Structures are given as structure tokens and as C-alpha cells.
Predict the 3D structure of the following.
Amino acid sequence: MKITDILGMALKNLFRRKMRTFLTLLGVLIGTTSIAVMMSIGVGLDKTMEEQMQRYGSLNTITVNPYTYFESDGMAYTQPSVKTLDDKAVQEFEQIDGVVAAMPEIRAMLKFASGRYIAYVDLVGVEPAKMQYFDFEVSEGRLLNEDDKGAIVFGKDMSYQFYNPRSIGRNGVIMFGGDNNEEPPPVNVLEDKLIMTFDLSYGESYGNQPGSVRRKTYKIQGVGILKDSGEHNYSAFINMNYLKKLIKDNEREERRIAGSQSSEFGSYAFYSVEGMGRSSTKESYERVLVRVKDVNRVEEVQKKIQDMGFACYSLADARNEAKKQFAIIQAVLGAIGAISLFVASLGITNTMYMSIYERTREIGIIKVLGCYLRDIRGMFLFEAGMIGFFGGTIGIGVSYGISAVINTIARGFIPDVPNAAISRIPLWLALASVSIAVLVGLIAGYFPSRRAMKLSALDAIKNE
């Protein structure tokens, strides 16, 4: 028999019993929809988790510290070892295969002021040329340049941290500008005049007491505001070389002003590997950010850095643990959906057996005319496969509709994430679902097709 004859006879038989074919196809549709929707929830939760984690930093970034964590020897905790996180270490990180860039940071807590408004600022010194590798993107203005000195790039919410120390709210609480960022910030950090100082009592009433010493102030200019990133929203960034100069300048200032007179509000504490509260006696960074080209190599690079004696962590650690949990969830949800498809396979098997009983005489005539057994088998397998294909294809279409409804309902319960997609059906899941439906159809039709092949031609012709 020609392939076209086999296909024609198979399609003719499917349409001969329209209701039975429809009900069988409906079972496959429900099974495919169950698998696709169940799996889509697991995929959606995994993807949403990853997107939320990226708000707090890049999954490709490793944070390196100059110390190792406490280790237990069974009875007590040993002191952590300390390594100098200097330029040499930064160069070693950049030479690791897979690393795009390594950016050191130094930090200082300074006081910013604009008119009557002041703010405590976590000021981070970075290398301007490397900011592009670490997802620094501005919503206004620009990033830092190599020749910048007093230029500052502010985190998204930093402008809302300015407040008037004379404006005290209820219960003595300072009222910061803006209510959930619905009101404009009290200071326009890109246009207003700004100064900064290491004197953390600047602008406060307790800093104006008799005998208090005034310290230097520095003119600065806001040149950019970063996009919402979660990690950088409440920090400000400055050229590292300029910040180093200011730190040394402040150390000389402190020594000039009767060092013993320095108070906890007026003294500056530079974080060094020797400890907090002392000035650094050698070139050392508080931490180094290491950018890895491929997120799948983060764990490998992280292990190499740890072998060098440094403590490091990344969001990829939490991501890997979460993925293990979501893999279990996807497996459970997929198994629940597979039960429906298994039931549908029984329906396909039943339909094929009923078709054999109804077409016994026809099968006998085909055999007498010299039809190959493989053609008979192919005809029944094609019928079963078509039921699986059409049921699976329509089921995927229904799954996309159900997925859209689930996401619409979910967004009503998660107002903080307007684009939340709890259910996602990627292309691979759609294709896999249809393929599984076809495979189930073929498996369900295999045994009926073997029965058709084994029928005696003479007995089949005598059958009424």
C-alpha cells in the first residue's frame, strides 16, 4: 500500500466515529493541558525567583572579602585567616579563566548636605572604567569618568535620604522626604549645590556645642542617578582615586586636631583588614567584585578564589539551592499532570481496540489482497499518533489561555510586582508536551496494532 492510502484510510476511520474520536482526543487534551500548566507553574516560579534575585545584584558577580569564615574543629571555632585584598589580588582574580573584570571598592560613611538638608551617605569608591561591567546603568545623567574628582553618581533612592534635622515628626522620629517615592525628593542631587564632610555631626545641633571643632567640607557635583537595582539604591559612587586622596587628607586633619579629642561622631573609621576603627597603614580594599562571563561558571571561579584563601559569595549560591528546590516542585507537578495523560492513553487504547473489532472484516480483506503487515500496523499507529498530536496541540493552546488567566489573578495578589508571571510556558515546554502526547498515542496504539496484525485473514473475512 502507498503511504497516501494508509493516511487516507486512517483519517477516514477517525472521522467514521466522530464522537468517540472527539472524546478520546478530549482526554489527551486534558492530559496535555495538565502537564503543561503544572510544569509552567514550576518554570514560572523559578524564573520569577531569578528575576527577583537579579534586582539585588547580578548572578554573574562574585563578592570577595579579605578574610575566611570561622571554621569549627568539632569543639571550638578557630579564628579566621586574613589575607590582604590589594592590587596584586585583583590582578590574580582577573587572570582566572572566565573572569571579565575585577573591581575593588573602598567605602566611607560621610555626611552630605544641601542647604538645610543633610544625609548620611554610604560612599563607595570605584574604578570608573570598570563600572560598565557590573550593571551600572543611569536613569539620568551619566556614569563616572576617569578624570572625575568631585563627581558623584547616586543610587536611585539616595535623594530621598536627605532630611531637615529641624523637622521632627511624631515621637521624635525624623521625617524623611517622600512617601514611598510618590513625592519629589527634598534635594535635586543633579542640580542643587552639594557638599560633603567626614564630620558626621555636621548640620546637627549636637555638632554646634561650644568647643566643637569644624572639619573640612568638599564641594561635589551629582552627575548621574542609577536605575533601580536594589543593591545600589542607597549608596553613592565616586572615583576611587579621589576618595583615597580625601581619606589621606582626613587622616592628616584628624592628627592636626588633637587626635585624642576625636569623638565617635567626628572621627572617621576606615575599614581595613586589621580591623575597624583604625586608619589603613597599607593599600587594602574592603571587598572586590568579580564579574564572570558565564553564570554557569560562577561556581567554578568561586572555588578558585576560595582556594586562594579569600572568602567569597554570590547570588548564584542561593540560585543553585533554589533551583534544586524548584526542580523537585516541577517533578511533583509534572507527575500530577502525567496521571491525566496516562488515563488518556487508556482511552486511546480502548478506541483502537474498538476500531479493530468494528473493522475485523475490512482487515481480513486487506490481508487477502496482499497488504503487508507493517502497513496494517502503520495505519493503526498513525490513527493513534494523530489523536495524540491533535489533542496535544489543542491542549497547548488551552494551556496558554489558562496560563494567562493564572498570571492575571496572581498580579492582583502581588501588586509590588506588576509583571509577575507565575505561570510560564516556554517553547521547549510546548514542544515537549506535544511530543509526549504523540508518544503516548503511539505507545497506546502499539498493542492494538499488533492484534490487528495477528488476525487470521480467513476468520476475519467470515466475521460479520
